[in-house]
Amino acid sequence: MITWNAEKQFFHLHNQQVSYVLSLAHGRYLIHSYWGKHISTFSQADDYPKLDRSSFSPTPAGWPDRTFSLDTVLQEYPGHGAGDYREPAFEVRYEDGSQVSNLHYISHHIVAGKPPLDGLPATWVETPHAAETLRVTLEDPLTHLQVELSYTVFRDLPVITRSARITNGGKTPLRLLRALSCSVDFPDSDFEQIQFPGAWARERQLHRQILNPGITVLDSKRGASSTHQQPFIGLVRPETTEMQGEAWGLHLVYSGNFTARTEVDAFQQTRVLLGINPHGFGWALQPDASFQTPEAVLAWSDNGLNGLSHALHTLYRDNLVRGEHRHKVRPVLANNWESTYFDFNEEKLLRFADNAKVLGAELLMLDDGWFGERNDDTSSLGDWFVNRQKFPNGLRPLIDKVHQQGMQFGLWFEPEMISRRSELFARHPDWVLHAGQQPLSEGRNQYILDLGRPEVRDNILQQMSHFLDEHPIDYIKWDMNRNMTEVGSATAPAGQQQETAHRYILGLYALLEALTKRFPHILFECCAGGGGRFDPGMLFYMPQAWVSDNTDAASRVHIQYSTSMMYPPVTQCAHVSEVPNHQMGRSTSMVMRGAVAMSGNYGLMLDLMRSDSERDDAVRQQIAFYKQHRQLIQFGTFWRLVSPWENTDFAAWMFVSEDQQHALMMAFSLVSIASAPLRIVRLAGLDPAARYQLDDGPQSIGGDELMFRGIFIDPPLSRDYISRTWHLTRLP
Ligand code: DGJ
Question: pTM score, two decimals?
Answer without folding.
Answer: 0.98
